[in-house]
Design a protein that fits this description.
The complex is a heterodimer of chains A (269) and B (228). With 269 residues, chain A is α+β, with helices and mostly antiparallel strands. In chain A, the strands form 3 sheets. Chain A has an 8-stranded mixed beta sheet with strand order 1-3-4-12-9-14-8-7. In chain A, strands 2-11-10-13 form a 4-stranded mixed beta sheet, with no helix packed on it. Chain B is mainly alpha-helical. Among the domains of chain B are: 86 residues, no CATH class; 33 residues. Helix content of chain B is 69%, strand content 0%. In chain B, helix 2 packs antiparallel against helix 3 and helix 3 packs across helix 5. Chain B starts with a helix and ends with a helix. The chains are: A alpha+beta (269), B mainly alpha (228). The interface between A and B is large, with 52 and 40 residues.
């Protein structure tokens, strides 16, 4: 396994939230294309790419499920690259909730970008974590993903056992929201979506997320600007990375669904 | 199963008399990976520290540029070793062997930080904005939406500006005057406030206050015109 130490560009990337990734944000020698472990300047793992570890059949099943996702991206403004703004009502006044603006949603509609979450949503102070509507309506989708999720968990345990132990301890506190005996509580699908730089706020802090790219596509490398690294993954690869860092995608050509497995925040409350 | 049989067949250890006392187990299970990524990270960090130590030794004893470079290496080492452990580590590895005080190392680190800051401000931004079609389209759409939201706010406020001002002026609010009085007086007034005459007392006090305003020539600037 190749290991690289990355440099820290925290200050320079502070303004990049909601901007889009570019190849110029990656150092030439830091585009990861084979089994690689990226280490932060303090020696802590921040990303791990494992090439071709997932069964193509499982990936195909997951892709078919992901392609049926049909939820709007109105709740994830920063992911699509815009600030959340109040809707303009029919009477011309502003609405009270800030969401992704309609003009941006129309742009995304052209690319058929959609999302969907199976499993648990993150809890807040006011509202405890709960199962998503989609999971309640179609629980069979999670069952179809079971082998894939368990395989991902197996690789997680094999390569980053202490990170997984932390996550597992958290998810064990909410047995009803846990996905079988894995360290995950939720599976998020992003369909045909080129993400702008964002942080995943709903994830457990300090934990790693599993990212599985599915479908037939080119491009769509994940860029983590703080470390100036890019991850050129293909279907069948598995990426473990810290979702608390800004991350976004390069343009995608083809059909792609990204599956993210993670442990939601405040699930035990 | 097939694999294990072939392994046993190929095992010729019994033919070697020297190896008789050595017990060999056929490797039926291949353990993979032998080291976890966390182990790899640990060893790589150790190698990195060793590498940086070698570099530091090379730079010790050169000029100002060397001191800056040395400061850079110390900053990296500090990150790897940990903020708390760095002083002890430094004294053991560099302080005693090379007779360089910890304070000197700190000044080298400051030099390096300052040099890097200068270089960063002189360098063009390393993160230019993305110019692909999707990025441009979304950026423009977001800008359009921002303008629309700003416009909507202006429209709604200009339509009903006078109505809103009127309602705001006529709506009831609470005013708590901080008036100095003795405890006895305060308790009596409190009793009055609790009594059934509270509503009329409330309006009487308001009238009296307004009369005081007239007496002392205190009026709101906008209400003065209408009164006159």
């Amino acid at each position: 396994m190749k290991t690289i130490f990355v440099d820290d560009y925290k200050r320079e990337t502070a303004h990049l939230t909601r901007e889009f990734a570019s190849l110029e944000h990656v150092d030439k020698d830091k585009m990861l294309g084979k089994d690689t472990l990226a280490l932060r300047p303090d020696g802590c793992p921040t990303a791990l790419l494992l090439k071709g570890r997932m069964d193509p059949k499982l990936c195909k099943t997951a892709f078919d499920i992901g392609w049926t996702m049909n939820e709007s991206l109105e709740t994830r403004a920063s992911v699509v690259g815009s600030a959340a703004m109040p809707r303009i009502k029919k009477n011309g006044r502003r609405g009270s909730f800030a969401v992704t603006p309609n003009a941006v949603l129309e742009e995304l509609e052209r690319e058929h970008a959609r999302q969907g979450t199976l499993g648990a949503t993150a809890g807040t102070r006011a509202r405890p974590a709960q199962i998503t509507e989609l999971t309640e309506k179609r629980p069979e989708l999670l069952d179809q993903l079971r082998s894939l999720i368990e395989r991902s968990d197996q690789l997680f345990e094999e390569f980053l056992p202490s990170f997984r132990a932390v996550q597992r301890a958290e998810v064990k506190k909410a047995p009803l929201l846990r996905l079988w005996r894995t360290a995950f509580s939720s599976a998020y699908f992003a369909k045909a979506l080129q993400c702008a730089y964002h942080r995943d706020r709903e994830n457990l802090r300090g934990a790693m997320s599993v990212l599985l790219p599915l479908g037939t596509f080119t491009g769509g490398q994940l860029v983590i600007p703080r470390w100036r690294i890019g991850i050129a993954f293909e279907p069948g690869d598995l990426l473990l990375f810290d979702p608390g860092q800004l991350h976004g995608n390069l343009p995608i050509a083809g059909k792609r669904v990204s599956l993210v497995l993670y442990c939601a925040r405040r699930i035990a409350a | 199963m097939k694999e294990s049989v072939t392994v046993l067949r190929n095992d010729r250890s019994h033919q070697n008399p020297k190896a008789k006392h050595i017990v060999r187990f056929p490797r039926l299970i291949r353990r993979f990976p032998r080291r976890t990524a966390e182990d790899v990270a640990f060893y790589r960090t150790a190698y990195r520290i060793a590498d940086l130590e070698t570099q530091a030794r090379e730079w010790i004893g050169r000029g100002r540029d060397a001191n800056t470079e040395l400061g850079r290496i110390f900053i990296r080492l500090k990150g790897l070793v940990g903020h708390r452990n760095f002083e002890k580590y430094y004294i053991a590895k560099f302080g005693r062997p090379y007779n360089i005080a910890f304070r000197t190392a700190q000044s080298y680190m400051r030099l390096a930080r300052e040099a890097d800051e200068k270089a960063k401000s002189a360098r063009p931004a390393p993160y230019p904005l993305a110019t692909d079609q999707h990025a441009v389209a979304i950026r423009e759409a977001a800008e359009r939406a921002r303008q629309a939201v700003a416009g909507a706010a202006e429209d709604s406020s200009s339509d009903s500006a006078s109505n809103d001002a009127e309602t705001a002026a006529n709506s009831i609010c609470i005013f708590r005057p901080y008036i100095r009085m003795t405890r006895e007086q305060r308790d009596t007034v409190a009793q009055l406030w609790k009594s059934k005459h509270r509503k009329s007392v409330d309006s009487d006090v308001t009238d009296y206050m307004l009369r005081l305003c007239k007496k002392y020539d205190v009026f709101r600037s906008d209400s003065k015109d209408s009164d006159d």
